[in-house]
Amino acid sequence: MVRGETFPVFQPWKEGKSVLLAKNTWPEIKQRIERGLETVLIPLGSTEQHGPILPLDNDIFNAVQICIRAAMKSEKALVAPPLCYGVSGHHMDFPGTISITPRTFIECLKQIAISLHKHGIKNVLFVTCHGGNLTAMKTAVWELRQEYPNLLCAAIHPYVFSASYMDKVRESEPGGLGSDRVAHTCETETSVALYLRPEEVRKQHIIKEISPLAKGKYTKSDPLIPGVSIYFGLRTSEVSATGVMGDPTKATAEKGEKIVEHIVNGLVDLIDSLSEIRSKIFKRGPNFSV
Question: Whole-prediction pTM value?
Answer without folding.
Answer: 0.93
